[in-house]
Specification:
alpha/beta, Rossmann fold, three-stranded parallel β-sheet
């Protein structure tokens, strides 16, 4: 996540960090509608994993919950892991170690949001 944070900060993005899935859900819930454009969600986190956090965000009663872009970040490169992540409501899937070009490509796919 450090590479992603570095790239995004240099591009002028405001970063909201969460150390686990529960914190990620709470941070999104506390944000203003439309304030969060992209969530980079680690799959393997303590307290609540990224897929459960994604499901919770997607079912929130707010207008941007189904539209916010959620990109999985994981060391797991297996097809079944990607399938599970996408079924949980994630929009995209990037493997670690993260390459800056892959992050930029993924973000550019959603820049209209």
């Amino acid at each position: 996540m450090e590479i992603a944070e570095f790239l995004l900060t240099n591009a002028g993005a405001v970063i909201i960090r969460a150390s686990n899935g529960k914190e990620a859900v709470e941070a999104f819930a506390k944000s203003g509608v439309g304030e969060v454009n992209v969530i980079l969600m680690d799959i393997m986190m303590p307290v609540m994993d990224g897929m459960e956090a994604t499901r919770e965000i997607r079912t929130m009663n707010r207008s941007d919950a189904s539209a916010v872009v959620i990109i999985a970040m994981t060391a797991n490169a297996f097809t079944e892991d990607k399938t599970k992540a996408l079924k949980s409501g994630m929009d995209d899937y990037l493997t670690k170690p993260l390459e800056s070009e892959k992050l930029i490509r993924a973000l550019s796919r959603y820049k209209h949001n």
